[in-house]
């Protein structure tokens, strides 16, 4: 987990929660914070330039809750929502692409108190911090996992890190995007709600793929990669 991402999201959520006890409290109707577990799918082209064995990509769904969200309503019909989310994909055995997404959006909703339901729709802008974590065999220029395992066994890192004279690097850029979705809060008590959510994220990152041999570029290629996803979330919200 990206600790900086979680800390930033928690800090914003705490600030939004404290709004209910400040001079702005007169403008705030409700404040809620929540967590979600999600299942997601990449919806763009899954080809990823630079892979050795194949260019196929698999989504990496993590078992712990990866979505933190905070909602501040200013009237019975909606307000602002802030979310932090984390996504990942496995690029065959070459490495893993991760992106931490922060979203600020508008939430339009209505609380049907007699039914204990609050359906909503939202749209927002996003900023994603993107990185590619290379596996050692790929980064240090070996042709396969087996070749790396056979050579590196029992050898010190300074040996196998320089044996091929080749160094591979995949550098994605951070990027802006947008998101939209819908969902419903099902109130279990006055202050606790079960949250069901469907969300679409749209963004693309610029990527530089480079292979160097003895400090000279063998490959230096730029391409873009879609971070488009659809996610299905299940979570809990606490209303204050």
Features of the shown structure:
57% strand, elongated, 11 strands, single chain, 240 residues, 13% helix, 4 helices, mainly beta, 8-stranded antiparallel β-barrel, Porin
Describe this structure in words.
- The chain is mainly beta.
- The protein has one domain (3-133, 173-201, 228-239): Porin, CATH 2.40.160.
- Helices cover 13% and strands 57% of the residues.
- The chain is built from 4 helices and 11 strands, in the order αββββββαααβββββ.
- It has an 8-stranded antiparallel beta barrel.
Secondary-structure blueprint:
Blueprint: H1 3-18, E1 30-42, E2 57-59, E3 67-75, E4 78-91, E5 95-109, E6 117-134, H2 136-139, H3 145-152, H4 157-160, E7 166-172, E8 175-187, E9 192-213, E10 216-226, E11 229-239
CATH architecture: Beta Barrel
Roughly how many Å is the radius of gyration?
22 Å
Sheet of most strands:
8 strands, antiparallel, barrel
Low-confidence stretches: none
What is the CA-CA span between the terminal residues? 28 Å
Helix count, DSSP H or I runs of 4 or more residues:
4
CATH class: Mainly Beta
User: Can you list the strand order of the major beta sheet?
Assistant: 1-3-4-5-6-8-9-11
CATH fold name: Porin
Range of helix content: 10-25%
Note the overall shape: elongated
């Amino acid at each position: 987990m990206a600790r900086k991402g979680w800390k930033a999201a928690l800090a914003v959520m705490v600030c939004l929660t404290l709004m209910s006890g400040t001079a702005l409290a007169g403008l705030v109707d409700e404040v809620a914070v929540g967590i979600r577990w999600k299942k997601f799918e990449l919806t763009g082209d899954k080809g990823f330039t630079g892979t050795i064995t194949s260019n196929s990509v698999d989504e990496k769904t993590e078992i712990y809750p990866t979505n933190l969200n905070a909602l501040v309503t200013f009237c019975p019909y909606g307000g602002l929502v802030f979310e932090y989310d984390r996504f990942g994909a496995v690029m065959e055995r070459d490495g893993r692409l991760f992106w931490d997404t922060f979203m600020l959006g508008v939430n339009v909703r209505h609380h049907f108190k007699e039914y204990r339901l609050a359906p909503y729709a939202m749209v927002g802008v996003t900023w994603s911090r993107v990185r590619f974590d290379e596996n050692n065999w790929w980064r240090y220029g070996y042709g396969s996992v087996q070749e790396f395992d056979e050579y590196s066994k029992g050898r010190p890192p300074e040996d196998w890190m320089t044996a091929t004279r080749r160094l591979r690097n995949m550098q994605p850029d951070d990027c802006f995007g947008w998101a939209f979705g819908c969902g419903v809060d099902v109130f279990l008590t006055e202050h606790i709600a079960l949250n069901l959510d469907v969300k679409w994220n749209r963004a693309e990152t610029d990527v530089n793929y480079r292979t160097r041999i003895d400090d000279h570029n063998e490959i230096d290629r730029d391409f873009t990669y879609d971070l488009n996803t659809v996610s299905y979330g299940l979570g809990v919200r606490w209303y204050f």
